[in-house]
Design a protein that fits this description.
about 190 residues; alpha+beta; Glutaredoxin; seven-stranded mixed sheet; 5 helices; globular; Thioredoxin-like_sf; disulfide bond; antioxidant; Thioredoxin_domain
Length: about 190
């Protein structure tokens, strides 16, 4: 049975905050090079000089339209469904986020070729980063779950400033409106410093 990954079905289970990201704020990013869909590698500990904040949204995995979910009960795993709508939300708000002083990147444990298909199909104006070997995931102790023998990231978003995690959104729900939540958070910070 195929499904449309751009549509969130009603009644998805809401993930709960299990404390798995409580240790992240204030943590420096490790010197891990991640392959990027736009070519080359990116190190989150060395953000571009012209970037005030780096927004890195981590997601379990994108799906190809018409492809069956990774496991039959994918929609029953809290926080699993919604990677494509979340990416589209960040795409649609990329300019607003830039005006608010942030640059966006996505992160998953899928390989770069798989990510590239999604980035091109969804017309993402930012790179997706691959942590296929779990180097960043393990170094930061990011929360994961297993499905069909794959170790996938739980949905979370890191706000990075000067190579240090300033804030972490976790859990993220609903994923299709998360970019708006991040934008509101950024604008609140801008207002506080104005």
């Amino acid at each position: 049975m195929s499904h449309d990954p751009t549509i969130l079905p009603p009644g998805l289970p809401v993930p709960v905050d299990d404390g798995a990201c409580a240790h992240l704020p204030g943590t420096p990013l490790p010197p891990v090079a991640l392959a990027a869909t736009q070519g080359g590698t990116v190190r989150l500990d060395q953000p571009p000089a012209d970037v005030d904040r780096l927004i890195v949204y981590a997601y379990p995995r994108t799906a190809v339209p018409g492809e069956a979910p990774l496991v039959a009960d994918w929609d029953l795993i809290p926080g699993a469904r919604g990677c494509t709508p979340e990416s589209c939300g960040f795409r649609d708000h990329a300019d607003d986020l830039r005006v608010a002083g942030a640059t966006v990147m996505g992160l998953s444990t899928q390989d770069t070729e798989y990510q590239r298909e999604a980035a091109e199909r969804l017309h993402l104006p930012f790179p997706l980063l691959s942590d296929a070997d779990h180097a960043l995931t393990d170094a930061l102790r990011l929360p994961t779950f297993d499905a069909a023998g794959e170790r996938l990231l739980k949905r979370l978003t890191l706000v990075i400033r000067d190579g240090v995690i300033e804030h972490c959104f976790y859990p993220v729900f609903p994923p299709d409106r998360h970019a708006e939540q991040v934008l509101t958070w950024l604008r609140d910070r801008q207002s506080a410093t104005s």
